[in-house]
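Hi Y.,

Following your request, here is the sequence exactly as I used it, all 379 residues.
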Amino acid sequence: MRGFSKKKIKSFLNNISKESKKIKNKNLNKYLKFNNLKIYLLRYIVTFFLIFFIISYLFFVPFISIKFDEKYNGSLFASTLHKVIPLNKLNKEKANNLSSLNILNNFSESHLNQSKTSNESNDYFSKLIFPQISATSAITFEIDSGKILFEKNSEELLYPASLTKMLTCIIALENIKDLSQIITISKNASGKNHSFFIFNKGDKISAIDLIKAALISSHNNATIALAEFVSGSEKKFVELMNIKAKEIGAKNSNFENTNGLDADYLNHKTTAKDLALIASYCLKNQIFKSIVKTKSDYIKVNNNEVEIKNTNILLFFDYIKGIKTGFTNNARYCLALYSERNGIKAVTILLGCDEGKREEDALKIINWVNDNFVYKEIG
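Below is the corresponding structure, written out as tokens. Let me know if you'd prefer a different format.
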């Protein structure tokens, strides 16, 4: 190693080491940049597919024709449960004078305009394939004509859960002259009570905001506060509810509280048909009709704004105009819907739906109704 001192050799080796580290760092940076790029790309791809899935589910699924199992021919419900008949005697005259719902039987338009015998009509019903739904009980009827379009066990006594609040709120609307009047929350109406936000004793809130809280966010104590304001106690108000139900025509119902919580009220029961009559009556009130189609709103509690959001996710569709969701362990998933589609103004009641099936059941029925009926004015 002549000509090389130990110092030079050491310096040379140090330089090599430094250069080696630089190369390693460069390669490491390149590697990290490449990996970061892969991570970003993966994030973008996952986000894209997630957004695509959500949009597809919200926009396209409800409009795809539901293909029913061909083995199911509706024989369980034929004629008896699926007749186009007046919902009650009061609507019979109205049906004859105002409008008709003619069956769309997949023939040409000229066939639709031809008069059919009752035998032909019944024959058509016997061949209909009815939608399979998870609901224990259901009914759909057209409110202008009063004709039943779909029916399943509609007279079976069941728990209505928060669909009870329709009757509570219509009575409040009819009995409170000044809806801006401030109501003080009592001890009995305080607490959360399975609701989205709490009421404290002494809280001050207007009557109209209590009605909104009950119908939009399904607040269980809002109905108690309304009942105490109208009748002095919830017990006395419930008496008023049962009287009103009978007046409307809901003769098979027995209400025991204002909000539908049934753990301690095992006889708090009604039928889908009775609830359809109650819903139809409620929709005649323009304030009620306006509230139940509201997706979100603000109410004031002690002059503090509280945002409330509707529990009915089907309001996303422009043809759905309300009305109320419900759930308890006894009732399972319930729904009262009002829809306006292709001229058909329909009220649909679903009781006892399986978890995750309530909205699907509703869309199945509405799509089926619009596939099989057409609304025509009688000149």
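The first helix runs from residue 6 to 60.

Thanks again,
Q.
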